[in-house]
């Protein structure tokens, strides 16, 4: 991976900083050494000690610059688990956005080509890949994947296709041309209508084992009175369609 940013942590304070960066806080000025490593202690000019920590997946979600609502870690986990994406896999992605999914996949060792139609969003995503230390694994292309399908079909096939776009069903219709035999498809959508269209398109394209999932999580509360699920509402994030190429 390329050089990544680090979290500088003191008690409940967290700052995402690059090697060589200087940052002023009410606890003093932090000067991050160029050769910083995870576990190093860095003292501000006022004597406050911060610990440098290497970024992990949840840190990416919490600290990368956002251009909209990023995919939640629980949905990222489903994509990685059901699609079996790992080191050495080639992944084609569309709807980069903030780049959370691409960053996770890159840190898992996959080589990702991701499309983002908004040029400003794409620029932010490229900067986020640098921060995450995966710019050498994740190529962010500005453009519409549907307009590049013919050219991509002539390239080497991908091991997985991940989509987070409104026109995902149109891409799914061509997905078998893009994937290796048995390659995985994962489509994310916040709405039932788009999810249904993607699932039907996958079945019509001959994909195997097509299934649609929604992840519901409940936090547990523990007190002296007893233990029970939190009374806070269970928030909907999105639906995921999975399938395997014929």
Automatic annotation (TrEMBL):
Coiled coil segments of this chain: none
Key words, A-Z: Methyltransferase, S-adenosyl-L-methionine, Transferase, tRNA processing
GO molecular function: methyltransferase activity
This protein's name: Methyltransferase domain-containing protein
GO biological-process terms attached to the record: methylation; tRNA processing
Top-level taxon in the UniProt lineage: Archaea
Xref: CDD domains: AdoMet_MTases (cd02440)
tRNA (adenine(58)-N(1))-methyltransferase catalytic subunit TRM61 C-terminal domain location: 74-222
């Amino acid at each position: 991976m390329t050089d990544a940013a680090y979290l500088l942590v003191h008690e409940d304070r967290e700052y995402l900083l690059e090697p060589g960066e200087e940052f002023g806080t009410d606890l003093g000025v932090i000067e991050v050494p160029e050769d910083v490593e995870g576990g190093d202690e860095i003292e501000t000019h006022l004597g406050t000690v911060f610990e440098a920590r290497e970024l992990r997946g949840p840190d990416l979600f919490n600290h990368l610059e956002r251009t909209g609502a990023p995919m939640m870690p629980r949905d990222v986990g489903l994509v990685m688990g059901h699609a079996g994406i790992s080191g050495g896999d080639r992944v084609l992605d569309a709807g980069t956005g903030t780049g959370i999914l691409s960053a996770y996949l890159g840190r898992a060792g996959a080589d990702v080509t991701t499309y983002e139609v908004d040029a400003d969003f794409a620029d932010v995503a490229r900067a986020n890949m640098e921060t995450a230390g995966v710019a050498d694994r994740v190529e962010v292309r500005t453009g519409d994947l549907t307009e590049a399908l013919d050219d991509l079909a002539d390239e080497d096939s991908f091991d997985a296709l991940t989509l987070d776009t409104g026109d995902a069903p149109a891409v799914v219709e061509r997905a078998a041309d893009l994937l290796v035999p048995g390659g995985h498809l994962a489509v994310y959508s916040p709405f039932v209508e788009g999810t249904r269209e993607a699932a039907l398109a996958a079945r019509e394209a001959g994909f195997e084992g097509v299934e649609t999932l929604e992840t519901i999580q409940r936090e547990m509360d523990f007190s002296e009175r007893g233990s029970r699920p939190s009374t806070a509402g269970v928030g909907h994030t999105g639906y995921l369609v999975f399938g395997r190429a014929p």
